[in-house]
Design goal:
Blueprint: E1 7-8, E2 23-25, H1 30-35, E3 41-46, H2 51-66, E4 72-77, H3 83-87, E5 95-100, E6 103-109, H4 114-130
């Protein structure tokens, strides 16, 4: 198994519970890393020039550490990897998709304060735990 917080291209993500930092996902790896993930996943569609994206990034870093083993945090740079953003109709960034079992459970467009984003994550995990 290759563990890295770098870009996952064609690697199989096993032992996802060991990942405590956001994973940078490419168009080619999106289906395997996100849609086939055994863990609930946050997908952050972002770009390097996006100010609100930079505000959300440290919060997502914290969440990845705090929810290690319960939640996978992934990031897609829409400038370099636009395909899945287009498929999901992402029109503004940051857009965060909350994905469980390959299905979108929630979509958040725009940056949120840390407390509000934490509330959404907790609600997301509660809802999927009930199913």
């Amino acid at each position: 198994m290759v563990y890295s917080t770098g870009v996952y291209n064609n690697f199989r993500v096993e032992g996802e519970d060991m990942i405590s930092e956001p994973i940078h996902v490419t168009d080619d790896s999106f289906e395997k890393v996100v849609l086939q993930s055994e863990l609930p996943t946050i997908v952050d569609f972002w770009a390097p020039w996006c100010g609100p994206c930079k505000m959300v990034a440290p919060v997502l870093d914290k969440l990845a550490k705090e929810y290690e083993g319960k939640l996978l945090v992934t990031k897609v740079n829409t400038d370099e990897n636009p395909d899945w953003a287009t498929k999901f109709g992402v029109q503004g960034i940051p857009t965060m998709l909350f994905v469980s079992a390959g299905k979108i459970a929630h979509r958040q467009v725009g940056a949120l304060p840390e407390a509000m984003l934490r509330d959404i994550v907790d609600q997301f995990l509660e809802v999927i735990a009930e199913n």
